[in-house]
Amino acid sequence: MRVLVTGADGFVGRHACNALRAAGDEVVEVHGPRGEGISSTALHFDIADEARVKAAVSDVKPEAVLHLAGFSSVAKSHQNPARVFAVNTMGVVHLLTALRESAPKARVLVVGSGEVYGPVAEGTLATESHPHVPLSPYSASKSAAELAGEQFFRSYGMAVILARPFNHLGAGQDPTFVVPSFAAQIRAIALGTVDPILRTGNLDAVRDFSHVKDVVDAYRLLLTQGEPGQAYNVCSGEGRTIRGLLEEMLRLSGVQARIELDPARLRPSDIPSLVGSAEKLRALGWFPKLSVADALRDVLGPKVGGAPSH
């Protein structure tokens, strides 16, 4: 199938395009405006630019769309809420409006976030029916984007499927995120270029982590077999503290370091525990093939973390 992938130049987008091509799909990549000139074959525009979105969809007429483009940092979303909603919410509205006009039969996977659930009691798994309690502009914008997707499904019969991924890890993630930040510090300590001190934010938060390669496999499955109008958690169903991840990274790297809390790395609002149930996705035949340890090795790199996953 001909798949339009927005955000194809991002962390997940690069892995997704590789997976889709490996499955035999024709992929049309959409890169953000900052990536212009890097790829001569990709389209380049801001998803918040309604006219550019409309022109691209009219030209490509995709059979399916994997919508990954968005403002992805929860922490930074507090600094510019208007931009977050313009990209994450209105970007979805622009895309679905364009598809309704030029490719109304296309299957569309709108990638949201498990962050929409907000705090979930420790020991409890958030199912797709769990209420939305957004605590950041990021999660609020993702929740609003889902409402738009549901409306286009109900009003116009468009095949919109909603994905709610929880945390995912792997090679190529931006170093502003917690695990790549740890990895960069660990590599520097291993090289001896900095003192053996690891600066962190809140280490007690419990999160649900998956390997990015398993996540993109779930996305293709949902593109082909997900039920329109339905939401699906993409997660492991297992909770891990950030502290536990850091300790595993230190073990894999063989690095010893003193851990220090950096107040600048704390969020204005943080969720103590967020773990999801993947039973609905598993019913379609998905299951994880790679471990969190595999993902941590990929993030650390072969010189520090050992052999990469495949």
UniProtKB/TrEMBL annotation:
It comes from Corallococcus llansteffanensis. Residues 4-298 form the NAD(P)-binding domain. This is NAD-dependent epimerase/dehydratase family protein. It comes from the Bacteria.
